[in-house]
Amino acid sequence: MKVFSKEQIYEGDKVTEERQKLPPSELMERAGLQIFNWMHMRMQGAQVPIHIFCGIGNNGGDGLVLARHLITHGYNVETYVVNCGNSRSKDFLISYDKVKEVTKKWPQLLKCESDFPEIHKDDIIVDAIFGIGLNRTIEDWIKALFHHFKDSEAFTLSVDIPSGLYTDKPVEDVNGVVKANYTLSFQSPKLVFFLPETADYTVQWEVIDIGIDREYLITTDTEVELISKNEILPMYTPRTKFSHKGDFGHGLIIGGSYGKIGAVQLATRSVLASGAGMATAYVPECGYLPLQTSLPEAMVLTDVNDKKITDINFDIVPSAIGIGVGTGTDTVTVQAYEAFLKNNKAPLVIDADAINMLSENKKLLKLVPENSILTPHLRELERLLGKWSSDFEKLEKASAFSSKHKVILVIKGAHTITVYGQKKFINVTGNPGMSTAGSGDVLTGIITGLLCQNHLPIEATLFGVYLHGRAGDLSVEEFGYQSLLAGNIIDYLGEAYIDLFKQPEQPQEEVESEDEA
Question: Residue 516's pLDDT is what?
Fold first, then answer.
C-alpha cells in the first residue's frame, strides 16, 4: 500500500475531479458518506449521543456531510462549528446549507471555552476540525477544547487525521493535537501514524476508499510504502522436487566474544530456519563447543583467539555473510573487521558491533560494498547518523546516509522502516513482545539466509523484516508479551512461511435445520 504525501493527496483530488468530471463538493460528499457507512454498520441505529465538531475548511465539510446522513437516519446528533477563523471554504458552505435543509437544529457555533458542550463518557466525539491542510498555530481556546475531549473520556473518532497533527513535520505543541481512539484516513494512511513521536495520537486507524482515480493511485510513485502480506507473497520462491541444499546457499555468521556466543547461535540458527541450505558460524575458540552442541545443523570455524575476534580467516565461499552480533569493539577486532571489509566479495548484513565500529571509524564506510544491509537499533542508529530533533529529521538523515553510501538501512522499532535511498518501506508485522534480547540477532540471520537464496538485497530485507515480525506475532499468541524469547521467534518462522498462503476465513452461511424448515 502506498502512503501518499500531502501534496500527492491534493493532486489526486484534482485529477479525480477532472477525469471523473466531478464538482469539487462531490469528493466531500463521498468522504462523509463513507464515514457514515462505517459508523452506521457498527451502531445500527443506536441512540448514543454523537457530538460532531467541524472546522470551517474541507475537513469540517466532511463532518457536516456525516452529520446530515446521521440526522436523516434518526441518530442522536449534535453538530458544532468550531469558529477558528473568518475564511470558510466554499465546499464547507455548501455542506452547511445542506445540513440546514434536513433539520431545524442548526450547527452550534463555538467561539470560546464558555461555549463548550457537556460530553459524557459514553458519548461519541467526531473530530472533523482540522485536516491535512493545517498550516497555522492553534488558538488556546481550541487547545482547551481538545483537552475537553480528553477529559470526557468519550470515544473519539477523527476524520482523515487527528486535528492538530501535521503530515510532514513534528508536533509543535502536544496540547494542540486531538488524541483519537480511531482515525478514518482517506484513501491511504498517513506517515505520522507509524512514527514513534506521533503514532500515539491515534490508537487505531483504517483506510476508507473515497473513489480517488485508480490510474492516479496505481501510477503515482510515493516515497513511502507499507509492506504487508500482499507485497511479500510475490517474493516467495517455491522449491522444486529435485532441489538440494546447494541450491539455497551457504550463510556465514561472523561474531561472538566471551559471554556473547548466544548471539551467534541465534543468528546462525535463523540462517537455516529462513531457508538457507547450509550455515557456518565464525567465532572465537570459546564458542566452538557451545555451538557444536546447541546447533548440530551448523558448521563452526574459530578464530585463533579464545575470547574475541582477532583474524577473520576462512576457506569457504559463503553466499552471504552476517557480521557483528556479539563481537565487541576491541581494537584488534576493529583491525580484523577492516581487513575483512577490504577482501570481502559476498553480500553483507551488518549488525550490532559491526555498526558501532563503523560509527567509531568512519573511514571504514568507504569499504562497505554497495547494497549492504545495516540493521541498527535506535542507539546504534544515533551513533551512525548523529542526533536528530524529530522523527522526520531522523528519516531525512537515514535517506541521506543510504543514498551517500549506497546501502540499505533498517531502522528497527514498533514499525520497522527500511530506508533505500529516498524510498521508505514500513513493515506492518511485529509486537512489543519482540522487545527482548536476541531479537535483532534473529533478524540478522533471517536476512542473511534470504540473501543466500538469491533474493535481491532489498527483497531479502523487506521479506526478512516481514517474516521476523510475523513469526513474532504468531509466537506471542502462545507465550505472551512478557515471556516471548528470541528463540521462540525462530521456532515460528515455519508458521510465518505457511501463513503467507493462508486465506482469510469466510463467514459460514447458516444452514437451516429440518426442524426449522
Answer: 45
